[in-house]
Amino acid sequence: MIIRGGIVYDPANGIFGEEIDLCIDRGRIVEDAKGEEIDAHDLLVMAGGVDAHSHIAGAKVNAGRIMRPDDARLGMEQATAVCRPSTGYTVPNCYAIGYRYAHLGYTTAFEAATPILESRHTHEELEEIPIIDKGALTLFGSNWEVMQCVRENDLKKLAAYVAWGLRASKGYGVKIVNPGGGEAWGFGANVKGIYDPVPNFDVTPAEIMKSLAQVNESLRLPHSIHVHFNNLGKPGNYTTAIESLDLFKDIKPSRMRQVVHVAHMQFSAYGGTSWKDFKSEAPAIADYFNKNHFCTMDIGQILFGSATTMTADAPLEYGNAHLLHTKWSNHDIELEESSGVVPLVYLRKNPVNAIQWAIGMELALLTKDPWNVILTTDHPNGSPFVNYPEVVSLLMSKVKRQEELSNIHELASKRTTLTGIEREMDWCDIAIMTRAAPAKILGLEDKGHLGVGADADVAVYDLRPEEVDPSTQHDLVKKALAVAKYTIKGGVLASRDGEIMAAPVGRTFWVDASVAKEDEERMMEDLKEKFDRYYSIKLSNYMVQDAYVPNPVVIKAGALPVEEVAP
Amino acid sequence: MRTITLRPLRAFEVSVEAETISPSRFASLTLGQIRTQEVFMGNWKMKLADLFKVEGDEPLATPEETTIVLEGDFSKVKRIGEGMGAGTLEVRGNVGMRAGSGMKGGLMMIRGNADDWLGREMSGGKIVVEENAGNYIGSGYRGEKYGMRGGEIEIGGSAGAYLGEHMCAGTIRVKGDTGDFPGAVNQGGTIFIGGDTYLPGAEMTKGSIMVRGKATMLPSYQKAEVVTLEGIQYQKYVGDLVENGKGELYVATNSA
Amino acid sequence: MSGQEMKTRVEEDVLCSFCGCLCDDLVVEIEGNKVKNVRHACRLGASKLMGHERIRTPMIRKNGKLEEVSYQEAYDRAAQILVNAKRPLLYGWASTVCEAQKKGILLTEMVGGILDSTATVCHGPSILGIEERGLSGATLGQIKNRADLIVFWGCNPAEAHPKHGLRYSTNVCGFFTPEGRKGRKVLVVDVRQTRTAKNADKFIMIATGSDFEVLSALRMFVAGKGEFVPEKVGGVPKEELFEAADMMKAAKFGAFFFGLGITHSRGRSKNVGNALALIAELNAHTKFVVMPMRGHYNVAGIGQVAAWETGFPMSIDFSRGTAYFNPGETAACDVLSREDTDAVMVVASDPASNFPRGIVENLAKVPVIQIDPYENPTTLLAEVVIPSAIAGVECEGTAYRMDGLALRMKKLVNSPHPSDEGVLNGIIESVKKLRGTEAEAKAPNEASA
Domain map of chain B by residue range? Predict the structure, then answer.
């Protein structure tokens, strides 16, 4: 396959809007190829989009579906010769997730949080999502064995457990959500800050985060730790964010990437002392990211309209449900985590929502290097992923932002700096924020770029970058990004002008990290006791069997030589 | 005034979905076009004329000036008058589920019985049922916060359970009894029940329910004053207190 | 028999395919190709794994009599019935594995039918309650390790879920509950004194059908509004309900289990919604979780699988090419009682025994296809009978425990029969053949072999 004449933005390879023919063979970008030709003359061409943080599979996503038939009926689409029926808007069914990412020109998405115990379920759903490649980040932040290793200050044993946990869950990286809080929630409590000890476990969130970051690097995992901070969603929490970030300053990355990725920063960039004097502290956060390069973030933009919030931060969800007096699902996972789901609607005239919206924009625009700040809506917490084109068109147009600011609660202008921000992103910034940087942050070497050897995941948009001025023609930008002209996944034309042409099976990335045998044996003694006494199932029934990941890409990590193996 | 009459050609083995039967849709269509409108019998996609005899006036009219008359048994025909905004729909017999759901305006006259989800999520217009109506009249969709948002429903006979569930505005009047839980989770609107009922106003926060007959009461209502309305004495209650509700529930005192 | 076949082996950590407890600690002795003994299981589970008289071959009813046919003939006949039907119902799914359930959903989409599970006659109202309220839940291990109060409402685990108390709730020792039963209180609410009630610290007997009012009264006490509650609710004196509410608020971690006593008494889904609201409100005072006591071992699974595949957990109508959901309109009982279906496929279930009589009479009026390892009263109505392997004994696959935890069922012995998944694949192929081209039959996202 050859994609002819497109205007290619491939920032990872130093290509900024050049007319290039892309050649594809056996699912990869190659020097030269024959066969089907796709006419992309003058059109915008980028690598397939990569979503590094999205809630697309697993128990809490399905809990969202089960409690929201009202949402399911919003996205009803017919079956076609290729497609199964679609449902849902904020919590689409598995098929809709694959089709809709493909329509956006996205070809990879990572589930942001799976408890080890419930990873079998997560993989059952991931496997049903068509077209895109995927992976899942494994939760470790309130895990009893993690806390035991931290308390004993036995980082080698902790490394053995993290490696084992990734294997057991067929997970891709270390996710930490409200560290310690998931355990405290077991008795309906929470931790209040990073130095507030976890009840009954005699460790602090700070110790948990720092230890996991060290272990993450000792295992040389492709991705850094991926953290949802304590106090998320609360006024004044930016100090918790900065305090937490300072923990990782001295840790050396084991790969060419950050040592910590901060999830949905918008929800942790809040000033004020209550909802009454709630304000943005995004400039302070952006300033931190401009001065320090060991950390990256995704914005977690909110958009006005319907959302379904879902997170392993269960106390936060209880707080949401209590405040909004709305339906609430909670799910605690023995020895490991907790989680919650609450549907909500973000309103333009609500001062808090308006300020939240502006904070996301500020973070993206004030952080100078787009490699450090990537685009997400924390799907479906801030908004469903189908609305990414709205976010992009806002980032590219001050005109559009001012229009929106004039429509929403006036406090968005008063309590944030957004009105004064002139910056308008260009296609290079967007290509970085939506594909190149997320791939680099995740450590996916063959994703997010179009160099020879890369996965043949390509998006062609019906937009002529040399003719369209995104600043004034933001509606054209939004329209073109919402429905890719062509989305090619692994060399297969998956979507054309909003129609699914083929639904190839995607692959699942997971990480197999090796550790010293003696460390593993020591760790297994702990685990044996935990299974004998505390878990409700047997150790032998715990690990996710190979049958649940029939199309794996196993990334090797750990002490042994690192090599990628794709069986 | 344009009148169009539909008669079923036979008894239907399985239910038919015919949301196209609405003055708002027929108004701008010729009889020939109406006959080719899409309907479903189960999973069989068919034309309206495959299932119904369609007769009437040929000249086009506005929806307001359009009347549809349904003659015969429509009890297995669902979604009649869905989303209708104006005009008249007269059913000379029974009608199937979800009639008048999402209705915004106009009049639906049902001479016989109506099935479940009549006027689901309706926001305007009027529905009159001369005989009995089923469950979930004027309610919302599963999992949805809001049911009926406006308009009127009048039922000459009795109604089933969950009458006006999640209702936020509008009026429902039932001459006879209702099933369990009328006005559950109500946030507004008015329900009048001529006969007896069971556990009215469960989890209601706003709105009012009047019961002329007997009512089995919830233990979560606060007794208020006795009031006289249209010459009849009612005991007023306020609740549902489990939801900090300020709904008003009136039960006739002579029935207790 | 040769010596090889008679060799005895022992399988450990086997999952039980009886109830929603999905116990995974069974030890099974296998002699040759036969389950000889089952240890650590309850009586119900052991009997399920030991098996009983099976359907031996596929059958088609000819002139009123079931006659033996080949699998292919049975698939073709089943496909023909489904393809010709205007509104086929594909029902059951609770006692088979998720792999089969997925194929069932695909088949239902292909033939434009309605898919419903046995939840419709057990915890369907719970799902409707969850749609109103959400559910504050936990895995069973969380309850084992923390709960100092167990509430059983309208359920009788002593008889229906015999190992529940020993493994997960009343009697088990855990991290914060080292004393087991001694460190816990048990509160039972029911309309009669069950065996479970006899072992309770407190038993409240309520009048039949008064669950909603009693739950409302408890919510009033929890919210501190007891003054408005009448002297007696559901036949129970006010003080007794006040004590119960106090007991719940005083717990450090409470777990509320409910069963068909709530979901199938007057009020149904509203009862469940009220219970879920009570639990949510208790969380303002302490920690409380709630869980439906699921019956069949994988009835939770069909809800999960259907939700991720279609967006809805049960009662899904594909007749117009989209997925539509509205129990009351699209549930198995609804379409059967209204004579709104013209063919029924029953998989791993027995509606002829479990449905009300009027509905069974309607079932008898339409062609019925049965897929099941065992003969049951539904067989007597069936026009096509297709025997399958027993999931969790003769073939492996996924099942979801009552708390939503997915586990993998084991294959212990070989079967002469194909799995449910295999049978469904056979019918799917026959449907494609009947439809002419494979392209016309919707190609699924064929992920796994």
Answer: 2-255
Is residue C449 a part of any domain in this protein? Answer: no
pLDDT range class, residue C436, cuts 50, 70, 90: confident
Strands A564-565 and A49-54: unpaired
> What pLDDT does residue B62 have?
96
Region B19-44: mean pLDDT is 97
Quick one: pLDDT at residue C4? 53
Rounded to two decimals, what is the model's pTM?
A: 0.96
- In this structure, what CATH number is given to the domain that contains residue C391? 3.40.50.740
* Pairwise CB contact (< 8 Å): A186 & C439: no
Tokens of C124: 């369907």
Q: What is the C-alpha separation between C329 and B231, in angstroms, rounded?
A: 41
Residues of C in contact with A492 (CB under 8 A): none
Range of the domain at C160: 124-292
The CATH T-level fold of domain B2-255 is Pectate Lyase C-like (2.160.20)
C213 neighbourhood in chain B, CB within 8 Å: 199, 218-219
Q: CA C320 to CA C343: how far, in whole Å? A: 17
The arithmetic mean of pLDDT across residues C105-122, rounded, is 96
What is the helix (H) or strand (E) element at residue A522, kind and residue range?
Answer: helix A517-533
CB B80 within 8 A of CB B89: yes
| Nearest CA-CA partner of B43 in B5, B75, B14, B11 | B14
Q: Are residues C132 and C108 in the same domain?
A: no
User: Which three-class secondary structure state does DSSP give residue C334?
Assistant: helix
Output the six-digit token pair for C213: 């009012």
Mean pLDDT along residues A112-130: 98
Which ipTM score applies to this complex? 0.96
Assigned domain for C445 exists: no
Sign of CA dihedral A424, A428, A433, A434: positive
**Chain C residues lying within 8 Å of B142, measured CB to CB:** 128, 131, 325-327
Element (H or E) spanning A458, and its range? strand A458-461
Q: What is the pLDDT of residues C338-347, one digit of tens each?
A: 999 999 999 9
A530 touches chain C (CB under 8 A): no
Is residue C443, in this structure, part of any structural domain at all? no
Count of other CB atoms within 10 angstroms of residue B160: 20
Q: Do A73 and B145 touch (CB under 8 A)?
A: no
Distance, CA of A441 to CA of A421 (rounded, Å):
26
Q: Are residues C22 and C66 in the same domain?
A: no
Domain membership of residue C447 (yes or no) is: no
| Residue spans of beta strands (DSSP E) within A304-395 | 305-311, 329-333, 337-346, 373-374
C-alpha span between C122 and C51 (Å, rounded): 24
Compute CA distances A41 → A4, A463, C62, whole Å. Answer: 6, 10, 65
User: Is there a single domain that holds both residue C278 and residue C176?
Assistant: yes
Phi, psi of A217 (to 5 degrees): -75, -35
What CATH number is attached to the domain comprising C246? 3.40.228.10
Question: Within this chain, do residues C233 and C160 fall inside the same structural domain, yes or no?
Answer: yes
The single residue listed with the structure tokens 């028999």 is C1
d(CA C203, CA A96) in angstroms, rounded, equals: 48
Average pLDDT over residues A489-502: 98
Q: Are residues C307 and C422 in the same domain?
A: yes
Q: How far apart are CA A213 and CA A250, in angstroms?
A: 11
Q: Do C326 and B142 touch (CB under 8 A)?
A: yes
The mean pLDDT value of chain C amounts to 94
Report pLDDT digits (tens) over C120-160: 888 999 999 999 999 999 999 999 999 999 999 999 999 99
Whether residues C43 and C60 share a domain: the answer is: no
Whether C43 and C94 share a structural domain: no
Cα radius of gyration rounded to whole Å, chain B: 19
Under 8 Å between Cβ of A360 and A75 = no
Q: For residues B130 and B146, give the distance between their C-alpha atoms in angstroms, rounded to a whole number.
A: 26
Which helix (H) or strand (E) segment is B186 a member of? none
Q: What is the pLDDT of residue C50?
A: 87
